[in-house]
Amino acid sequence: MHFAFPPRKTSNPPPYAVRPSRSTPMLRRNQLRLLAIIALGLLSFIFIASRLFRSSSGSAQSEYIPPGTPPVVIVTVLDPKGNPSFNEMVKQNREHYAEKHGYTTFFPNPADYPLKTAPVSWAKVPAMRHAMTLFPHSTWYFFLDVHALIANPSISIEEHITAPARIEELEIVDVPVVPPDSVIKTYALKGDKVDLIICQDHEGIGRESFLIRRGEWAKYFLDAWFDPLYRAYNFQKAELHALEHIVQWHGTMLAKLVLVPQRIINSFHSDRAGVSEANIYQEGDFIINFTGCDQGGKTCETVMRQYAT
What keywords are assigned to this protein (predicted)? Predict the structure, then answer.
């Protein structure tokens, strides 16, 4: 009788078939999801950084500006309880100039802003922010104090101040940002990178006449300046000392600021005490500032009327 023997095993058996792991596709999906999250976070960071710090000229070039948009908005805060003829003189001075150059004007009421117990001089800050909301496509916002006049209406703001090449020609470099002895000094900037143009006077930074360029930085700057903490701090000179603090100790502010000679945007009337001869108004100057004009028994309207245009 013959018995069937099982087939003899080979000494070189075939390799075992490896079954695919069910966890491999899941691991790959998790890795791809992680990479997608990282990429999205990186793109978000780049977008936010570019929005905040890109040059304003670059954003202006890429943004659609409707036809008829005024390139400059002149902002002056008027006291509705003040002398009506004085207010009208100031308004006409700005309006005639704006019409000549294709600009526009904005005369807000300080009562429209949440100043609470803060001095009314703080109103200039939300007023500039308000102007940016009303005229969102304009390029420059020019704050001019109620006690200042445009003395030479033939001068355009672009040619006189804001053209990039003109900014680079005017900017004052390597001086204390807050006179006389601040350790923080100004440095040279490209004209198209500048978003705040301001001057100094014998009291410090000249907050009575300045220009801000439209953009994310401008909104950030004004919001920081109007911070409730600063308004409640009771600075001796209110918004001026708050401004001097932020431009000295916050590098983001100084990185967009240039100082220009005072007589470019804020010549003083000869009756103002403590003013150096170099900064007193001379015929042909753009702006003449009459702060303190109600002293010595005179009214501001009487002093200013002879220079109104």
Answer: Glycosyltransferase, Membrane, Transferase, Transmembrane, Transmembrane helix
